[in-house]
Protein backbone atom coordinates (compact mmCIF):
# COMPACT_ATOMS: atom_id res chain seq x y z
CA UNK A 1 0.00 0.00 0.00
CA UNK A 2 2.83 2.40 0.86
CA UNK A 3 4.67 1.65 -2.37
CA UNK A 4 1.57 2.21 -4.52
CA UNK A 5 0.69 5.44 -2.71
CA UNK A 6 4.21 6.87 -3.08
CA UNK A 7 4.02 6.45 -6.85
CA UNK A 8 1.14 8.92 -7.07
CA UNK A 9 0.80 11.14 -4.00
CA UNK A 10 2.55 12.24 -0.83
CA UNK A 11 1.61 14.12 2.28
CA UNK A 12 3.09 14.42 5.72
CA UNK A 13 2.63 11.27 7.85
CA UNK A 14 1.40 9.25 4.85
CA UNK A 15 2.98 6.07 6.31
CA UNK A 16 1.24 6.55 9.64
CA UNK A 17 -2.14 7.14 8.00
CA UNK A 18 -1.86 4.00 5.86
CA UNK A 19 -0.74 1.92 8.85
CA UNK A 20 -3.70 3.19 10.87
CA UNK A 21 -6.08 2.10 8.14
CA UNK A 22 -4.45 -1.36 8.02
CA UNK A 23 -4.75 -1.79 11.80
CA UNK A 24 -8.52 -1.22 11.60
CA UNK A 25 -8.89 -4.05 9.06
CA UNK A 26 -10.61 -6.93 10.92
CA UNK A 27 -9.57 -9.71 8.48
CA UNK A 28 -5.95 -8.53 8.75
CA UNK A 29 -6.17 -8.65 12.55
CA UNK A 30 -7.65 -12.15 12.44
CA UNK A 31 -4.67 -13.43 10.42
CA UNK A 32 -1.96 -11.70 12.46
CA UNK A 33 0.79 -14.09 13.62
CA UNK A 34 1.90 -14.43 17.22
CA UNK A 35 4.31 -11.74 18.45
CA UNK A 36 8.05 -12.44 18.76
CA UNK A 37 8.93 -14.65 21.69
CA UNK A 38 9.84 -12.78 24.87
CA UNK A 39 13.39 -13.01 26.23
CA UNK A 40 14.03 -16.09 28.34
CA UNK A 41 13.09 -15.53 31.97
CA UNK A 42 14.59 -18.13 34.28
CA UNK A 43 12.95 -19.31 37.48
CA UNK A 44 14.98 -18.28 40.56
CA UNK A 45 17.02 -21.20 41.85
CA UNK A 46 15.83 -22.22 45.36
CA UNK A 47 18.59 -22.38 47.94
CA UNK A 48 17.37 -25.61 49.51
CA UNK A 49 16.13 -28.97 48.15
CA UNK A 50 12.46 -29.88 47.79
CA UNK A 51 11.41 -26.21 48.16
CA UNK A 52 9.81 -25.78 44.72
CA UNK A 53 8.47 -28.64 42.61
CA UNK A 54 7.49 -28.60 38.94
CA UNK A 55 4.85 -31.17 38.00
CA UNK A 56 3.31 -32.25 34.71
CA UNK A 57 1.65 -35.22 33.04
CA UNK A 58 3.12 -37.55 30.47
CA UNK A 59 0.05 -38.82 28.70
CA UNK A 60 -1.15 -40.94 27.20
CA UNK A 61 1.44 -43.69 26.78
CA UNK A 62 0.05 -47.18 26.15
CA UNK A 63 -3.26 -45.99 27.62
CA UNK A 64 -1.50 -44.99 30.86
CA UNK A 65 -0.54 -41.72 32.49
CA UNK A 66 2.63 -40.73 34.30
CA UNK A 67 2.92 -37.97 36.87
CA UNK A 68 6.33 -36.32 36.47
CA UNK A 69 7.80 -34.34 39.39
CA UNK A 70 11.14 -32.49 39.33
CA UNK A 71 12.77 -30.68 42.24
CA UNK A 72 14.01 -27.27 41.08
CA UNK A 73 17.02 -27.29 43.44
CA UNK A 74 18.45 -30.78 42.97
CA UNK A 75 16.86 -31.64 39.57
CA UNK A 76 15.69 -34.92 41.19
CA UNK A 77 12.98 -36.53 39.03
CA UNK A 78 10.08 -38.68 40.21
CA UNK A 79 7.91 -40.50 37.65
CA UNK A 80 4.88 -42.46 38.85
CA UNK A 81 2.35 -44.36 36.75
CA UNK A 82 -1.26 -43.43 37.52
CA UNK A 83 -4.55 -44.60 36.02
CA UNK A 84 -6.22 -41.21 35.66
CA UNK A 85 -5.36 -37.52 35.82
CA UNK A 86 -8.15 -36.76 38.30
CA UNK A 87 -7.47 -34.55 41.30
CA UNK A 88 -7.85 -37.49 43.71
CA UNK A 89 -5.29 -39.59 41.85
CA UNK A 90 -2.81 -36.72 41.72
CA UNK A 91 -3.25 -35.93 45.43
CA UNK A 92 -2.73 -39.59 46.36
CA UNK A 93 0.48 -39.69 44.35
CA UNK A 94 1.77 -36.44 45.85
CA UNK A 95 1.04 -37.68 49.38
CA UNK A 96 3.23 -40.72 48.79
CA UNK A 97 6.10 -38.50 47.68
CA UNK A 98 5.56 -36.03 50.51
CA UNK A 99 5.67 -38.87 53.04
CA UNK A 100 9.23 -39.59 51.88
CA UNK A 101 10.61 -36.08 51.31
CA UNK A 102 8.25 -33.78 53.21
CA UNK A 103 6.09 -30.89 52.03
CA UNK A 104 7.56 -28.43 49.53
CA UNK A 105 7.09 -24.69 49.83
CA UNK A 106 5.48 -24.27 46.44
CA UNK A 107 2.84 -26.37 44.63
CA UNK A 108 -2.11 -28.06 48.78
CA UNK A 109 -1.69 -28.18 52.54
CA UNK A 110 -0.52 -24.58 53.00
CA UNK A 111 1.70 -24.84 49.92
CA UNK A 112 1.75 -21.93 47.48
CA UNK A 113 0.51 -23.13 44.09
CA UNK A 114 2.11 -21.19 41.23
CA UNK A 115 0.03 -21.35 38.03
CA UNK A 116 1.45 -20.84 34.55
CA UNK A 117 -0.34 -19.53 31.44
CA UNK A 118 -2.22 -22.27 29.53
CA UNK A 119 -0.91 -23.38 26.12
CA UNK A 120 2.54 -21.98 26.98
CA UNK A 121 4.63 -25.03 28.01
CA UNK A 122 7.90 -23.10 28.20
CA UNK A 123 6.60 -21.33 31.33
CA UNK A 124 6.97 -24.72 33.08
CA UNK A 125 10.11 -25.66 31.20
CA UNK A 126 11.66 -27.83 33.92
CA UNK A 127 8.67 -30.17 33.98
CA UNK A 128 8.40 -30.17 30.18
CA UNK A 129 12.04 -31.24 29.82
CA UNK A 130 11.55 -34.03 32.38
CA UNK A 131 8.44 -35.27 30.56
CA UNK A 132 10.31 -35.35 27.26
CA UNK A 133 13.20 -37.30 28.80
CA UNK A 134 10.98 -39.89 30.48
CA UNK A 135 8.93 -40.33 27.29
CA UNK A 136 12.11 -41.08 25.34
CA UNK A 137 13.12 -43.71 27.91
CA UNK A 138 9.71 -45.43 27.71
CA UNK A 139 9.71 -45.46 23.91
CA UNK A 140 13.24 -46.92 23.84
CA UNK A 141 12.24 -49.67 26.26
CA UNK A 142 9.20 -50.46 24.12
CA UNK A 143 11.33 -50.74 20.97
CA UNK A 144 13.84 -53.01 22.74
CA UNK A 145 11.06 -55.25 24.14
CA UNK A 146 12.13 -54.42 27.70
CA UNK A 147 9.87 -54.22 30.72
CA UNK A 148 8.81 -50.58 30.90
CA UNK A 149 8.69 -50.33 34.69
CA UNK A 150 12.13 -51.93 35.06
CA UNK A 151 13.59 -49.62 32.41
CA UNK A 152 12.09 -46.56 34.09
CA UNK A 153 13.47 -47.55 37.51
CA UNK A 154 16.92 -48.21 36.07
CA UNK A 155 16.97 -44.85 34.29
CA UNK A 156 15.83 -42.90 37.36
CA UNK A 157 18.50 -44.60 39.47
CA UNK A 158 21.28 -43.70 37.01
CA UNK A 159 19.94 -40.19 36.41
CA UNK A 160 19.79 -39.35 40.11
CA UNK A 161 23.41 -40.44 40.49
CA UNK A 162 24.73 -38.53 37.45
CA UNK A 163 26.11 -35.00 37.64
CA UNK A 164 23.54 -32.48 36.43
CA UNK A 165 24.82 -29.92 33.90
CA UNK A 166 22.98 -26.95 35.45
CA UNK A 167 23.79 -27.44 39.13
CA UNK A 168 27.08 -29.29 38.74
CA UNK A 169 25.97 -31.90 41.31
CA UNK A 170 24.20 -35.24 41.28
CA UNK A 171 20.46 -34.92 42.06
CA UNK A 172 20.89 -37.50 44.85
CA UNK A 173 23.66 -35.46 46.46
CA UNK A 174 21.72 -32.21 46.10
CA UNK A 175 18.52 -33.66 47.57
CA UNK A 176 19.78 -36.28 50.06
CA UNK A 177 23.32 -35.11 50.70
CA UNK A 178 24.81 -38.41 49.50
CA UNK A 179 25.21 -40.59 46.44
CA UNK A 180 22.80 -43.50 46.23
CA UNK A 181 25.60 -46.13 46.39
CA UNK A 182 27.21 -44.56 49.47
CA UNK A 183 30.43 -43.40 47.72
CA UNK A 184 32.11 -40.11 48.63
CA UNK A 185 29.80 -37.18 48.09
CA UNK A 186 31.04 -35.07 45.21
CA UNK A 187 29.79 -31.78 46.64
CA UNK A 188 30.83 -28.66 44.77
CA UNK A 189 30.92 -25.14 46.14
CA UNK A 190 29.25 -22.03 44.72
CA UNK A 191 26.42 -24.04 43.18
CA UNK A 192 24.00 -21.10 43.25
CA UNK A 193 26.50 -18.88 41.43
CA UNK A 194 27.10 -21.55 38.80
CA UNK A 195 23.36 -22.02 38.20
CA UNK A 196 22.79 -18.26 37.85
CA UNK A 197 25.72 -17.93 35.44
CA UNK A 198 24.25 -20.72 33.31
CA UNK A 199 20.84 -19.03 33.39
CA UNK A 200 22.34 -15.68 32.36
CA UNK A 201 24.09 -17.36 29.45
CA UNK A 202 20.78 -18.79 28.24
CA UNK A 203 18.97 -15.48 28.73
CA UNK A 204 21.60 -13.55 26.77
CA UNK A 205 21.18 -15.75 23.71
CA UNK A 206 17.97 -13.97 22.76
CA UNK A 207 18.37 -10.43 21.43
CA UNK A 208 14.73 -9.31 21.58
CA UNK A 209 13.94 -6.65 24.23
CA UNK A 210 11.29 -7.48 26.80
CA UNK A 211 7.83 -6.16 25.91
CA UNK A 212 5.82 -4.70 28.80
CA UNK A 213 2.06 -4.12 29.07
CA UNK A 214 0.76 -1.36 31.32
CA UNK A 215 -2.26 -1.61 33.63
CA UNK A 216 -5.56 -0.66 31.86
CA UNK A 217 -3.81 -0.81 28.47
CA UNK A 218 -6.07 -2.02 25.61
CA UNK A 219 -4.57 -5.13 24.03
CA UNK A 220 -5.32 -8.10 21.81
CA UNK A 221 -5.14 -11.38 23.72
CA UNK A 222 -4.82 -14.86 22.20
CA UNK A 223 -8.08 -16.82 22.24
CA UNK A 224 -7.68 -20.61 22.58
CA UNK A 225 -11.36 -21.51 22.62
CA UNK A 226 -12.75 -23.45 19.67
CA UNK A 227 -15.20 -20.64 18.95
CA UNK A 228 -14.61 -16.96 18.33
CA UNK A 229 -11.73 -15.11 16.74
CA UNK A 230 -8.03 -15.83 17.08
CA UNK A 231 -7.38 -12.54 18.91
CA UNK A 232 -9.86 -11.02 21.41
CA UNK A 233 -9.89 -7.43 22.58
CA UNK A 234 -9.13 -6.99 26.25
CA UNK A 235 -7.70 -4.72 28.93
CA UNK A 236 -4.68 -5.47 31.11
CA UNK A 237 -5.77 -5.75 34.75
CA UNK A 238 -2.50 -6.54 36.48
CA UNK A 239 1.02 -7.79 35.93
CA UNK A 240 1.31 -11.06 37.87
CA UNK A 241 4.95 -11.86 37.07
CA UNK A 242 7.92 -10.74 34.95
CA UNK A 243 6.24 -12.00 31.74
CA UNK A 244 2.64 -12.88 32.81
CA UNK A 245 -0.52 -10.75 33.01
CA UNK A 246 -4.21 -10.94 33.91
CA UNK A 247 -6.26 -9.68 30.97
CA UNK A 248 -10.02 -9.02 31.09
CA UNK A 249 -11.94 -9.58 27.85
CA UNK A 250 -15.30 -8.20 26.72
CA UNK A 251 -17.12 -11.41 27.70
CA UNK A 252 -16.40 -10.63 31.36
CA UNK A 253 -13.74 -13.32 31.82
CA UNK A 254 -10.21 -12.78 33.10
CA UNK A 255 -7.40 -14.79 31.50
CA UNK A 256 -3.81 -15.33 32.59
CA UNK A 257 -1.56 -14.87 29.59
CA UNK A 258 2.16 -14.79 28.81
CA UNK A 259 3.49 -11.64 27.10
CA UNK A 260 4.01 -13.81 23.98
CA UNK A 261 0.22 -14.23 23.88
CA UNK A 262 -0.53 -10.49 23.97
CA UNK A 263 -0.48 -7.87 21.19
CA UNK A 264 -0.92 -4.13 21.37
CA UNK A 265 -3.98 -2.49 19.81
CA UNK A 266 -2.61 1.02 19.30
CA UNK A 267 0.68 0.59 17.46
CA UNK A 268 2.39 -1.53 14.86
CA UNK A 269 5.03 -2.72 17.31
CA UNK A 270 3.76 -4.80 20.22
CA UNK A 271 3.55 -2.92 23.51
CA UNK A 272 6.32 -0.85 25.10
CA UNK A 273 9.79 -2.28 25.25
CA UNK A 274 12.42 -2.47 27.97
CA UNK A 275 15.86 -2.31 26.38
CA UNK A 276 18.56 -4.75 27.45
CA UNK A 277 21.49 -3.29 29.35
CA UNK A 278 23.92 -4.55 26.71
CA UNK A 279 24.64 -1.83 24.10
CA UNK A 280 25.16 -4.45 21.40
CA UNK A 281 21.70 -5.87 22.01
CA UNK A 282 20.10 -2.44 21.90
CA UNK A 283 21.76 -1.71 18.58
CA UNK A 284 20.83 -5.06 17.06
CA UNK A 285 17.20 -4.79 18.18
CA UNK A 286 16.88 -1.31 16.67
CA UNK A 287 18.60 -2.36 13.44
CA UNK A 288 16.33 -5.36 13.09
CA UNK A 289 13.22 -3.19 13.43
CA UNK A 290 14.46 -0.75 10.76
CA UNK A 291 15.51 -3.56 8.42
CA UNK A 292 12.02 -5.03 8.50
CA UNK A 293 10.62 -2.15 6.49
CA UNK A 294 9.73 0.34 9.22
CA UNK A 295 9.75 4.05 8.51
CA UNK A 296 10.36 6.98 10.86
CA UNK A 297 6.83 6.48 12.20
CA UNK A 298 7.11 2.71 12.76
CA UNK A 299 8.66 2.87 16.25
CA UNK A 300 6.79 3.06 19.53
CA UNK A 301 7.50 6.23 21.49
CA UNK A 302 8.41 4.14 24.56
CA UNK A 303 10.88 2.09 22.50
CA UNK A 304 12.50 5.25 21.11
CA UNK A 305 12.80 6.90 24.53
CA UNK A 306 14.37 3.78 26.05
CA UNK A 307 16.86 3.62 23.20
CA UNK A 308 17.77 7.31 23.60
CA UNK A 309 18.40 6.85 27.33
CA UNK A 310 20.67 3.86 26.65
CA UNK A 311 22.75 5.72 24.03
CA UNK A 312 25.58 8.09 24.92
CA UNK A 313 24.80 10.93 22.51
CA UNK A 314 21.69 12.85 21.39
CA UNK A 315 19.24 11.27 18.99
CA UNK A 316 19.82 12.12 15.30
CA UNK A 317 17.49 14.59 13.63
CA UNK A 318 14.64 13.06 11.57
CA UNK A 319 15.42 12.65 7.90
CA UNK A 320 13.00 13.45 5.02
CA UNK A 321 11.67 10.60 2.88
CA UNK A 322 14.33 9.23 0.50
CA UNK A 323 13.92 10.86 -2.92
CA UNK A 324 14.38 7.49 -4.66
CA UNK A 325 11.06 6.30 -3.23
CA UNK A 326 9.10 9.20 -4.72
CA UNK A 327 7.97 9.27 -8.32
CA UNK A 328 8.57 12.44 -10.40
CA UNK A 329 4.84 13.19 -10.33
CA UNK A 330 4.58 13.43 -6.52
CA UNK A 331 2.54 16.38 -5.34
CA UNK A 332 1.40 17.71 -1.94
CA UNK A 333 -2.37 17.50 -1.63
CA UNK A 334 -4.96 18.88 0.74
CA UNK A 335 -7.02 16.88 3.28
CA UNK A 336 -10.06 15.99 1.03
CA UNK A 337 -7.83 14.66 -1.72
CA UNK A 338 -5.71 12.88 0.87
CA UNK A 339 -8.75 10.97 2.19
CA UNK A 340 -9.74 10.09 -1.37
CA UNK A 341 -6.24 8.74 -1.98
CA UNK A 342 -6.47 6.50 1.11
CA UNK A 343 -9.78 5.07 -0.12
CA UNK A 344 -8.20 4.44 -3.50
CA UNK A 345 -5.30 2.59 -1.90
CA UNK A 346 -7.74 0.45 0.06
CA UNK A 347 -9.58 -0.50 -3.14
CA UNK A 348 -6.27 -1.41 -4.79
CA UNK A 349 -5.38 -3.59 -1.83
CA UNK A 350 -8.72 -5.42 -1.90
CA UNK A 351 -8.44 -5.90 -5.68
CA UNK A 352 -4.98 -7.40 -5.24
TrEMBL record:
Coiled coil start-end: 124-151
Composition-biased stretches (Pro residues): 315-325
Sequence ranges of Polar residues compositional bias: 275-286
PROSITE patterns referenced in this protein's UniProt entry, alphabetically: INTEGRASE
Region (Disordered) location: 267-338
Keywords for this protein: Coiled coil
Residue span(s) of domain Integrase catalytic: 110-179
TM segment ranges: none
Record's keyword annotation contains Transmembrane: no
UniProt feature, compositional bias: Basic and acidic residues: 289-302
The protein's name: Integrase catalytic domain-containing protein
